Amino acid sequence: MAPSRDGAMTTKNSEAQGRGVVAKHQNAARDRVLVCESVSRWFGGLQALKEVDLVIARGEILGLVGPNGSGKTTLVNSITGFYPPQQGRILFEGQEIHRLKPHQIAQRGIARTFQNVALFKGMSVLDNILLGRHNFMRPSVLGSLFYWWWAQKEEVRQRAKVEEIIDLLQLESVRDEMVEYIPLGLQKRVELARALASEPRFLVLDEPMAGMNQEEKEYMVRFILDAHEALGLTILLIEHHMDVVTAICDRLVVLNNGVKIKEGTPHETINDPAVVAAYIGKVNHAA
Amino acid sequence: MFYRLSGIHHTRYESASQLWPIPADRWQVYALLALALAAPLLVSDLYLTSYLLPWLIMTSAALSLTLLMGIAGQLHFGFAAVMAIGAYTSIHLVRFGLPFELALLGAGLMAALIGGVFGAAALRVKGLYLVMATLAMQYLVDWIIVNVPAISGGAQATLQTPRTTFLFLPLHKDEVRYYVALLWVVLVTLLILNIKRTSFGRALVAVRDKDFAAAVIGINIVRYKLMAFFTSSFLGGVTGAVLAYCFYQAVTPEQFSFNVSIQIVAMVLVGGLGSVLGAYLGAAFVLLVPIVLTNAVAYLAGLGLLSASTNLLAHIPLMVYGGLIIGFLLFEPLGLAKIYDNLRKYFLVWPFRHARS
Question: CA dist B274 to A170, A244, B64, Å?
Fold first, then answer.
């Protein structure tokens, strides 16, 4: 099932409600790709997210930082439907998504990568990226049975699309390798490729550079910026490497103990006393 | 040595995603198919109907199950019950007056419906608990068949398959029965091979390996698990009907008992989970090795090389057979298909050990 494109959505809504006002409202809603309204999430007695508000504008790269256990991944899991928030709302392009299942959210045009690489082992790099095209394919048993008259056309068409992404992320040399046999840096890149293959409008990257050396990090930053530019993406980036975050993010949001403690441009944010305190303890007591 | 990889460069996506991209492999398959087609001329009727025929049919069963257990990763220990549903449905449909071809379709659909209902349990449970759910299916179906006379014709009853035709050919002839089984196994083989290289198969594997990662690329896990159960049960149902008509020419509940379920699981595991070739090898191993071993032991005893009590002689083949299964799985947990694959890859690049296929 292909995700509904902007055009289709606008027409549907404006028919329901009357045109001029709604169109303006829709534009405003579309500039705010993702809106979290006082999102809260508990795990038993532990409150992992406390009324977190978040707005991400179209085309923005937003950095989400904070010490370990501050709720960054929980927030991402709430957005992508794995841990739906128990309180609050999450809107994607003006529509509520916090009651949807993960696969429905993916079909709306949100893609993500995982902190621990979540590729399908035993499959080639090519097949992994092809899986990212799932939303654009119509898998069926009969289609497979009559492959030569039915599925082949679709497979070849999607393969051509995948080759474009392989080209963008320079994965040609490992195309036919099994994913478990390539180095971690490349695996993370394949996961990015799989996410990009689904043609998302909003991409969530959960520590795409964890465990990488300087060179691999630089490559990854380059690919993220390339994809951002070439595909017109809005990106939410979780990352611990402050050099990366300050270099490529438009804005930063800092979480600590499930609370948003600061939001702003990278430089003013990382120099904020509250943020420094969250990371390394109170400055006053350090001396 | 056996293969020449040099000079094979695929320049189109179509040719790169062929079933057998290496010409030598392709010719090997054509040769085997030709042999299979010529088999009625090459082997005696006894071999045709009591070795080749059951092997082909049980291969179809193993292929149907490997789609579910190997590719989709859902354990099923009641597959004989699925086949029983197909067998009984087809017999009653033909008795009702339907042509055999339609009865096969009906058998598949009935098995798929009932199998799908039990498959719905798979949405909630995994692993050993799924084994329990499918075992429950085995015993429930067995019990219903035995205790509902309208289905089984009464307890202890044997239903003869009615005389019928397949595509205007009389189904009581040995050759026709063989060719029907061959046609079915070829169809199932092509289906599984094609599933493995298309989006449907990839989605199943994704759900099997990492369901959260599958969800994040838009795969509806519930739907694909159900589709796997439905498809696999459909194939199993038709295979059950083919087994009833082409091999036994009768049905009794014992033909589809729990033992048979375990045998099919053993075929899938010994052959190699999710492997098409493995289903062929596994079925051959489970069906034929006990016969070969029994004959070998009897032969040795006849020569006087093996002096033991008749009781022990009867059990030696079983012991060796069990040992072989354990041995093969210890040696290569991915089954006979993997052993073949290793050999093939070795010779693919021989004598250059470090070149890759």
Answer: 32, 43, 10
Pairing of strands B159-160, A61-65: unpaired
Q: Map residue A190 onto helix, strand or coil.
A: helix
For residue A208, what are the domain limits?
A: 33-109+200-287
How far is B164 from B168, CA to CA, in rounded Å?
A: 9
pLDDT digits (tens, 9 = 90+) for A81-134: 999 999 999 999 999 999 999 999 999 999 999 989 999 998 999 999 999 999
Average the pLDDT over B147-172 and give the result: 88
Return the number of CB contacts < 8 Å for A and B. 111
Residues of A in contact with B190 (CB under 8 A): 145
DSSP A2: P
> What tokens appear for B78 in the block?
């009641």
Contact across the interface for A139 and B197, Cβ inside 8 Å: no
Write down how long chain B is.
357
* Number of domains composing chain B: 1
What residues contact residue B234 under an 8 Å CB cut-off, 6+ apart? B108, B109, B111, B112, B115
B198–A155: do the CB atoms touch at under 8 Å?
Answer: yes
Helix (H, G, I), strand (E, B) or coil at B17: coil
Number of domains in chain A: 2
What's the rounded Cα separation, in Å, for the pair B246 and B61?
14
Q: Span A226-247, mean pLDDT?
A: 93
What angle do the packed helices B221-242 and B174-196 form, to 10 degrees? 170
Note whether A55 and A46 are within 8 A (CB).
Answer: no
CA-closest candidate to residue B240, choices B107, B78, B53: B107
Residue B356, exposed/middle/buried by CB under 10 A (0-12, 13-18, 19+)?
Answer: exposed
Structure tokens at B41: 């001329």
In a domain, A237, yes or no: yes
Instruction: Clarify whether residues A264 and A281 are in a common domain.
Output: yes
* Whole-angstrom distance, CA of residue A249 vs CA of residue A64: 9
Note whether A81 and A135 are same-domain residues: no
Domain end, chosen from A199, A222, A238, is at A199
Q: Which residues contact A58 (CB under 8 A, 6 or more apart)?
A: A30, A31, A32, A33, A234
Task: Look at the alpha carbons of B207, B208, B209, B211 in this order and tell me if their dihedral is positive or negative.
Answer: positive
| CB < 8 Å to B221, chain A | 103
pLDDT score of B280: 97
Tokens of B186: 């070829």
